[in-house]
Amino acid sequence: AHMSLQFFPDGRFKHFLSLEDVPATALESLLNDAQQLRENAMGGTQLRHHLQGKTVCNLFFENSTRTRSSFLLAAQRLGADVFTFDASTSSGKKGETDIDTLKNLEAMGVNAFVIRHSENGAVEKLAAAANDGTSVINAGDGRNQHPTQGLLDMLSIRQIKGNDFSKLKILIAGDIKYSRVARSDLNALRTLNAGEIRVCAPASLLPTDGTLDACIHYENFDQAIKNVDVVMMLRLQRERMEEGLVASLDGYFQEYGLTQQRLGLAKPDAIVMHPGPMNRGVEIADEVADGPQSIILPQVSNGVAVRMAVLKALLA
Questions:
Q1: Are 21 and 1 in contact (CB under 8 A)?
Q2: Residues 67, 101, 148, 191: which is the catalytic one?
Q3: Is 259 designated active site?
Q4: pLDDT digits (tens, 9 = 90+) for 30-58
């Protein structure tokens, strides 16, 4: 359904909603652009001409620190006028619909909306309601998609492991069932022809839909991590305990937490990733998160470059 919504007939991006149907050429072109922007993505004014005169609104119906700050900086570094509208505390509380909120901001001359929402598919609905010249970027919707996180994860892997993913073994571990990050990462890894995609979680946290197509499932973390090149850890939300999906946080850490000892089972040059925010001592040990194999902070830096590449593809 979103194929027609996300692309113009000539294959250019109209919106950026999902990685599910983005072809490898388009994905690689965004990654190459992000890598080029990367050297100036951390500050300076060299890139300000790209989006001069464009207006970008961060429209957040759900809270977020990293993604929101990252998009804000990305838009500023490309020279756009950018502002944040926190709909989780304002108009929605007065009964205005999400579409009315978007339409009113559009009427003030907003060219692009970066939207985060707690409901699956809500961003796609807003994109469908937007004017012809308006672009919508999905900054995370429900447990559905988080496409710029998928991109920054791919860029982070490429920088260290090279562009050919076909020889890599990649493990995604943790709360996959409720993770929009995992869905976008899996879409991208399949598109980029990753050699072996492994997933590891307790059965209660593994999705039963088509999310895990072409993946190898493990319930035992020690087996799952053997000889992998990349370990992507996901956050365990504490609500999972109240919902009875995990017995205890300590027990979870013992079975599914990434410790230095467990990391020793992976390849010696394996890299460790985490989308943040981290629960230290729940899914990842301090010594791993802060250790030499961790690329968790470079991922965050790459987030700015990737979001610049997406804004540029839509607006420049």
A1: no
A2: 67
A3: no
A4: 999 999 999 899 988 999 999 999 999 99
